Amino acid sequence: MNRVLARLASSKPGTWFFLNVAPPIDRVLLRWSKGRFSLGGSMPICLLETIGAKSGQPRSTPLMYLRDGERFVLIGSRGGNPRHPAWVHNLRKTPQATVLAKGHRHRVNTHEAEGEERSRLWAQAREVYFGYEVYQERAGTRRIPVVVLTPVGD
Prior knowledge:
31% of the residues are buried. By secondary structure, the protein is α+β, with helices and mostly antiparallel strands. It has a single domain (3-151), classed as Pnp Oxidase, Chain A, CATH 2.30.110. Strands 1-2-3-6-5-4 form a six-stranded antiparallel beta barrel. It has five helices and six strands, in the order ααβββαββααβ.
């Protein structure tokens, strides 16, 4: 990711924009383009489709992702908010979801990375986007979840 864009995105106004303005627009762009275009520009953005933990209703959330082989990796930073994002709670209750990315829809099973797996993926995420370090500082004592999505058969 371009360092200037990363600095802007990890700033408080940039974080606000990507948490409040971009998601409704990205939901439309990602569906329309089958996961190929978003406001994130060159950042890899997917559309995560979960079932609401409380409502039981379908929820869709545009998120930056990393790849770990065939798996997708999501970081539950919520811009450094002291609370976890809703999609993390949704996946904790129902660990099956769908991901739309780069023209393909994948059914996935999910788990939160722990131990060596989490350390390795967290380091990889920080290399891709240094803003995660800023978000961890803002989050205080909250340990930001690293969530792994493994595609299952079609």
